[in-house]
Specification:
- This protein is mainly α and 218 residues long.
- It has one domain: Up-down Bundle (Heme Oxygenase, Chain A), CATH 1.20.910.10.
- The protein is 77% helix and 0% strand.
- It is built from 10 helices and no strands.
- It has helices spanning 3-10, 12-19, 22-28, 34-65, 70-95, 107-119, 126-146, 159-166, 168-186, 190-214.
- The chain is globular, with a radius of gyration of 17 Å.
- The N and C termini lie far apart (37 Å).
- The model has no long low-confidence stretch (mean pLDDT 96).
- Bound molecules: 5-(aminomethyl)-2-methylpyrimidin-4-amine.
- Residues 44, 47-48, 51, 136-137, 139-140, 207, 210 line the site of 5-(aminomethyl)-2-methylpyrimidin-4-amine (NSP).
- Pathway: Cofactor biosynthesis; thiamine diphosphate biosynthesis.
- Keywords: Disulfide bond, Hydrolase, Thiamine biosynthesis.
- One of its GO terms (cellular component) is cytosol.
- Belongs to the thiaminase-2 family.
Amino acid sequence: MLMIQKWLNQHNELYTSATRHPFTLSIRDGSVDLSAFKRWLGQDYIFVRAFVPFVASLLLKAWKESDDDSDIEVILGGMAALNDEVSWFKREASKWSVSLSSTVPQKTNLEYCRFLESLMSPEVDYTVAVTAFWAIEAVYQESYAHCLSDGSKTPEELKETCQRWGNDGFGQYCHTLQNIANRRLEKSPEDIISKAEATVMRVLEYEVEFWNMSRGET
Ligand SMILES: Cc1ncc(CN)c(N)n1
């Protein structure tokens, strides 16, 4: 069995907490509190801005360490999508009257951004960083795709948000990232595999805390 599938089986409860969180489930069933959505929007804009340098550092690691040239193109595609994402956040914030310039980062967000920064260090192995990248993107993909799947009652005005991460193209991209991570993990020594696993667990915990923050719980 491939490494990531093995971890997802072993840590299924944590993965489900991140990808079936009460906040995204409330979007899916239409009961979402719009002030929670606006809080998420403002905080996620701050997160995405910190995510850009993380992806830049990953690009550098791929260039130096990857055994497959196509990794760079996949990560560069992710970077282009982030460029779009930043513009989308600005438009969406104005639609919902959320002032991005006066949004103050919450403690959870600051801690998650600091964690991202720790992964930017040249000491962190490419395999560990690309596996973390897959986990960060996959949580949003799974969470928002679920808001669009059969039986969902997602409010019309939130469908575009769900489409952004829940669309099939983003799903395919996450699958490609998972393949890259699995390929690297297969060739890695035990200590790198353990570090990557611990990093994925930490990402999942931060993602749960991030959704909690949207609900005003932290
Ligand atoms: C907290 C968080 N995690 C993941 C993503 C997806 N790029 C995001 N926008 N925000």
